[in-house]
């Protein structure tokens, strides 16, 4: 029995095929199908051999990559640059490195900001409408406001009319002259010089403080190429003086206005409490006056130890009030500490040197040297092993522990004889205090005084640093007597002065006058000056008042 694709067939003894259903099928000779069967078998064998000889694309890519890698390795373009430096192989590797670096720089990404897409489509008409409502035109000096943006219905004018007058404020800068400030404001050169000469006759121009604001009104220009003339000009020349210039009958005329000023000193009293500084600030004392009060009392008392919380502070400072409402606080005039209703210490400023004296007429006493920095002493005067050089040598001063940038104070009044770089001292300042005594301050990070200037006790002359031969931020403090270094701990400064005769009588009279001023008397309301009630002084206040209709 032979099985073929299709229906099952049976063969009888004669070779005839019979179907499974009993019907006979005509006999077919096998030799007739032999060529076809042989052709099919050869085709199948060829297909099998082709599949065996033609691998997949993955195997082909793997063989190609391996072959290329072997060829690329023979080129040796990336050798180890730490070996055979200078050889041809090393130069070939260097060229590879340079080429790859250039390629990396060429492929450097761009970090430019990416603009976001607008939420809506904006055409030129909508853009112009938005521009008219933005604040940007104010910065560009262009139009502002909804109805100011130029549209396609607006045509430019050949000759736009000018404003009849311009009102603005000019500020006198530091180091600038009054005439040059007027010229920058748009006033002509001749008229600026004329105004400067006119004002200089009323008061010296050098006394006008920088930052003074001048209200200027310019009129209509006589010609297109001519500067605008000045219609009026006014400014606060001094605390008690206002100058105004007006054009009358074609000529500029100066009109000074003297302002009434009350100079009653401001007296502030209160209980010390837990903090003298906070109590004084709560009572209304300015910070500068409190600092002067504490500094002056510190020359006579130990503020933290000798002043109790139940004591009262009493201070007076120079205070000026103008009839126009401005106030100008000044320096400390009187300092006192009261205990149980009696003054423990009373001091008043007196004399051309603005020096403080006690109520008895004795000048303020300064016992000992003022510490240049509020830190402990880390190294004293004498022989020691230098921390940098490593051998023993003379340490000609004291080292104070301090943080970087901490202020350094003058130990006493004196003249700056040297300020600058000084070898191992780094940034160095030397003060001459008279009578052969001098002090030196080394390793500063910054110097705050100049050679030839005079300083007072407690004035900042520099800041702590670590310049020169220094292992860290600190202050090296030296003292000299007749040019030779001495131990700073062995010297004490005592400054005393005694008033006598008529000067002592005048001093006591002034002290009694100050003590008679009640606390807060300078804060009483001052009657307004009727001569200064003309109109607003600032441009922002110049709002046109509505006219009354009869």
UniProtKB/TrEMBL annotation:
Keyword Acyltransferase attached: no
GO MF assignments: metal ion binding; metalloendopeptidase activity
Cofactor (UniProt): Zn(2+)
Cross-referenced InterPro entries: Cell_wall_metabolism_enzyme, Dup_hybrid_motif, M23ase_b-sheet_dom
Biological process annotations from GO: proteolysis
CDD domains assigned to the protein according to its UniProt record, in alphabetical order: M23_peptidase
Record region (Disordered): 1-32, 524-550
One Pfam entry name: Peptidase_M23
Gene3D superfamilies, per database record: 3.10.450.350, Glucose Permease (Domain IIA)
Amino acid composition bias (Basic and acidic residues), ranges on this chain: 1-14, 536-550
Superkingdom classification of source: Bacteria
The M23ase beta-sheet core domain, residue ranges: 393-488
Keyword vocabulary terms for this entry: Hydrolase, Metal-binding, Metalloprotease, Protease, Zinc
Protein's UniProt name: Peptidoglycan DD-metalloendopeptidase family protein
Organism field: Altericroceibacterium indicum
């Amino acid at each position: 029995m032979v099985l073929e694709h299709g229906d099952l067939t049976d063969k009888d003894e004669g070779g005839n095929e019979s179907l499974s259903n009993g019907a006979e099928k005509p006999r077919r000779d096998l030799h007739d199908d032999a060529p076809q069967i042989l052709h099919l078998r050869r085709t199948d064998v060829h297909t099998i051999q082709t599949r065996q000889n033609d691998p997949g694309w993955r195997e082909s890519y793997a063989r190609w990559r391996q072959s290329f890698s072997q060829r690329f390795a023979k080129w040796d373009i990336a050798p180890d640059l730490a070996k055979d430096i200078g050889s041809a192989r090393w130069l070939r590797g260097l060229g590879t490195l340079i080429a790859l670096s250039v390629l990396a720089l060429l492929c450097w990404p761009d970090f430019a900001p990416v603009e976001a897409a607008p939420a809506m489509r904006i055409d030129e008409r909508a853009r112009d409408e938005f521009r008219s409502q933005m604040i940007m035109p104010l910065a560009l000096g262009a139009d502002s406001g909804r109805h100011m943006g130029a549209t396609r219905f607006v045509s430019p004018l050949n000759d736009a009319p000018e404003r009849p007058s311009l009102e603005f404020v000019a500020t006198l800068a530091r180091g600038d002259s009054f005439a040059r400030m007027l010229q920058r404001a748009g006033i002509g050169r001749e008229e600026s010089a004329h105004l400067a000469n006119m004002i200089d006759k009323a008061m010296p121009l050098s006394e006008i403080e920088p930052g003074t604001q001048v209200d200027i009104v310019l009129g209509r220009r006589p010609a297109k190429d001519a500067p605008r003339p000045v219609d009026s000009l006014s400014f606060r020349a001094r605390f008690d003086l206002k100058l105004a210039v007006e054009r009358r009958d074609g000529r500029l005329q100066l009109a000074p206005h003297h302002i009434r000023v009350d100079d009653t000193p401001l007296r502030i009293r209160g209980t010390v409490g837990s903090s003298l500084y906070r109590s004084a600030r709560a009572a209304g004392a300015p910070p500068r006056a409190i600092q002067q009060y504490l500094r002056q009392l510190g020359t006579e008392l130990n503020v933290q130890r000798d002043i109790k919380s139940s004591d009262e502070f009493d201070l007076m400072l120079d205070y000026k009030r103008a009839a126009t409402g401005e106030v100008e606080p000044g320096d400390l005039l009187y300092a006192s500490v009261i205990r149980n209703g009696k003054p423990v210490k009373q001091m008043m400023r007196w004399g051309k040197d603005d020096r403080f004296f006690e109520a008895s007429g004795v000048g303020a006493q300064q016992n000992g040297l003022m510490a240049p920095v509020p830190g402990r002493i880390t190294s004293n005067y004498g022989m020691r092993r230098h921390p940098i050089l490593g051998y023993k040598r003379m340490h000609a001063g004291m080292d104070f522990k301090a943080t970087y940038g901490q202020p350094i104070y003058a130990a006493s009044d004196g003249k700056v004889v040297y300020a600058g770089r000084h070898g191992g001292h780094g940034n160095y300042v030397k003060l001459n205090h008279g009578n052969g005594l001098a002090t030196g301050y080394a390793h500063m990070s910054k110097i705050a005084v100049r050679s030839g200037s005079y300083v007072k006790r407690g004035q900042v002359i520099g800041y702590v640093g670590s310049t020169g031969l220094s292992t860290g931020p600190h202050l090296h403090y030296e003292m000299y007597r007749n040019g030779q270094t001495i131990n700073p701990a062995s010297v004490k400064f005592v400054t005393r002065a005694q008033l006598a005769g008529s000067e002592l009588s005048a001093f006591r009279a002034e002290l009694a006058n100050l003590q008679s001023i009640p606390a807060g008397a300078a804060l009483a309301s001052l009657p307004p000056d009727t001569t200064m009630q003309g109109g607003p002084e600032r441009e922002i206040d110049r709002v046109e008042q509505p006219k009354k209709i009869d």
